[in-house]
Amino acid sequence: MGPDAVEAGTAAAGAPAGPVDDAPTDALRADAPGEDDDTVIASELSAAAFADLLVGYCLEPEPGDQVLVRSTDLATPLLVELQRAILQRDAWPLIRVELPGQTEGFYRHAQDRHLDELSPLALEEARQAQRSLSIQAPEDTSALAEIDPERLARAARGRREARELTLQSRWATTLWPTAALADRAGMSLRELSAFVARATFLDRKDPLRAWSGLRDFQARLIERLQGVEELRIEAEGTDLTLRVAGRTWVNSDGRRNMPSGEVFTGPLESSATGTIRYTVPSSPAGVEVSGVELTFRDGEVVEHRADVGGEYLERALATDDGARYLGEVGIGTNFGIDRAIGVILFDEKIGGTVHTALGRSYPETGGVNESALHWDLICDLRRGGRLYADGEVLQENGRFARL
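RE: above sequence
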């Protein structure tokens, strides 16, 4: 998941996670104690501990670095602690707070140039910042549901230069629990806070050790995937093949997405063949979309349907030429995330799932698909699904084969 959180889909409630083979229990199963009892029970999320993790692990600013932090006023406890942690590293905290209704108002009232261009001052901030952190903390998860998707797509295209500058620097994205997010997840705010603590390994005595264990497991998984030419995804309503020969797999270990827990690459753009049914609902920009089924031929979507949100799916596929091709395939490995909560940052990391993204590729994977769209959609393999690598079972029923 990239630095433009507004472009990513979000997903609603899903199934419980299954177990995992050959994975470090203390790193991947945040709900189960490790062999050395590294796990502690957290009743709530500590803003100070979270800030220390984000600054010390994700951003690691050097003295004098400009650290750009963006969120809403609802993340104030975390923002105050981030300022402390950044200052303690002799770096400069530049905190930008979004006001209630500000983003919705922008899209409703923006003139053409505001959508198709970016403010020179905002562009200069992106150019000057050595570190960037985006924190999702919405007051209303459906605030953009009534906004024309074409306006969202135009603004995404207009931000391209700033996005590319951010990708060249050290960046990260995360979430601070809010009442709106808790309501979407079907939890109380306290329950969501504890869920976030487990997902980010902040319920551990040593979160950095847990993230190191996850990184090591994913390195073994990538070693297994190196040299693989074809992936095949099988599940109810799904039989999709993708070619990944020559592409680079990325170990997403929490330094950019917090939480993380996935390995991903960019499939060959003309390779997707077959049908996939995405079994975890999605809510891009607050619009409910579920039961999405796509059929691919020579990499392109040739048939599509959705149980809910078909009109949004139509418009997303019409964003531009690249929107009908896949820019990413990823494998979730974080078994501390045992259900979908309606936020793609978390949901795509669920252990025992795979996801693909319509639209833009990440250049570091070798993918070359270009689009204003990047929409992650999730297929749950924990109930009868299989993932094959060159014909060999890599994952079955959400369980990894021995690596």
